[in-house]
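Appendix B, example 12.
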Amino acid sequence: MILESKKIWKNYAIGLVWLFVLLWPLLGIHDDGSLTVGRAFRVWLYVLVATFLCLSLYLLHKNDILKWVTSPMAKVRNRVTAAAGALPNWFWVLSVLTGAVLFPLFSHRYAQDVAINVLIYVCLGLGLNIVVGLAGMLDLGYIAFYGVGAYTYALLNLQYGMSFWVALPFAAFFACISGCIIGYPTLRMRGDYLAIVTLGFGEIVRIILNNWMELTNGPNGLLGIKPPGIYYPSFAQGFSLEFLYLKKLHYLYYVILFLCIFTIVAVYRLNYSRIGRAWEAIREDETVAELMGVNTFRLKLLAYAMGAIFGGIAGAFFSARMRFVSPESFSFLESAMVLSMVVLGGMASIPGIILGTFALIVLPEVFREVELYRMLAFGAAMTLMMLFRPEGLIPAKRVGTRSEERGG
């Protein structure tokens, strides 16, 4: 144990040296060409104090020195967990849904705007979860379907005057077709090769959107897209149906909340269907699944198409909300962000993905006042998360047990 602790402190010291080497160019080199060390050293000192305390507590806990504190806390945690587990699942679902419905009544515009972003990325994360979490295929170009859905609604609305609700199935359909077109020539590949090819196709879609001036207006984008609308009964001069554009944020919040609930229910049903079981078999061992009679290629293509549908739905709402769409919104960085949400929350775990999306969207907004350092903290948190909890915040519960688990 002593040797292990020495190794940990040695690695910790090396990491701190490297951190200062990285911080000094970021904070010590100024626009006028002058060089200073004070600012970088001050930030480095804050990080040193915080990480030293955390590492010291971790080692004390690992050596059972803090057992007099951790044991009572563990008992309290177990009691709370047992009490929470005694309540049925529908109670927690109903509580979360009630809180989500009442959220705009007790929040301001900024909070509603952030909540809308969270719900959009929940739809994207759950769609990508079908491909990555259930079927086990690494997709680095998923944001392409987001762009297809956004441009589909934008073009149908601007060129043909289609409303959001009429154009929404078309956005999902064209995103699905795009998924099939991209997936058919690529899904015979596996692992890193599949990731590289999907990354290439995602960039191809973005470049097409950026250069097809006659259709997409190129880098200038499409402006003047109508927001969603609904008909409501009016009795001012007899009975009639009036049309209302949902321009206010709280109206848009309820629209994306409805789409998000639809996505959650659909992904949940897919997960616990025969198709979902087949996807998990492919994820665990594609060769064995194929030998057991699973049509791996068809089901992988279906996973790609189903994931694309939810990306297209989210994209249609994005263009309706922003009323403007351009290729810059669908870069590789967005694909990486959605993939990070899936991995951080827990692959194939719906609550985990929701929590991971909340963490990656809300926490940077909370620390917006320290904008210079928030991405540094974000990267450090992601690194620590992957080191100490690689299965995610809320890992997925696998149905059944394996033979070696029953034997051992």
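Residues 2-85 form one domain. DSSP finds 17 helices and four strands in the chain.
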